[in-house]
Amino acid sequence: MSVTVILIPGYLNSGPDHWQTLWQLVFPQHVRVRQLDWNHPRRQAWIEGLHAALHCCQGPVVFAAHSLGCTTVAAWCRQAEPDVLRRVRGALLVAPPELERPDCLPALHDFQGIPAHPLPFPSRVIASSNDPYSSLAASEQLAKAWGSQFTLLGAYGHINGESNLGTWPEGQDWLRQLMVSPA
């Protein structure tokens, strides 16, 4: 059975030049999480959005999350049913935000208190050395707390559309590695 990729955008969704949007154009079979409100995110509503996307597909899945989408994955794991959790092969967690910093956007405050527990599936946190929304130390700390492999991409800002990654072949390679992880 093939593995379905679930794209989980962050705050404000992923724009036209974002690697998630470009992946969806190249791979239209990928499922993209839809949130009711991208501008005023609420943790529980976003968890429910992820849950709804999971129920739209059958079989094993792998997550490709960006920014607040990474936090959504961690929070969802705390509520997910065991049979649904077992379907997740892995998660690519790109540029998770540092939500506890003093300059955190007020719109994101509902997500503060990031679950800092090991994820129940293989994962890789990808960070940038100059992410305006997270320090490198905070990204490394989250990766450790989540039991994730940590990868420093380099100086790519928030690893979004402004990073000019295009379809980001290296990210696709990391995603494929997670797709073949044992369930």
Automatic annotation (TrEMBL):
Pfam short name (any one): Ser_hydrolase
Entry keywords, A to Z: Hydrolase
Highest taxon of the lineage: Bacteria
Listed InterPro entries: AB_hydrolase_fold (IPR029058), RBBP9/YdeN (IPR010662)
Record-level Gene Ontology MF annotations: hydrolase activity
Annotated protein name in UniProt: Alpha/beta hydrolase
Organism of derivation: Leeia aquatica
Organism lineage: Bacteria, Pseudomonadati, Pseudomonadota, Betaproteobacteria, Neisseriales
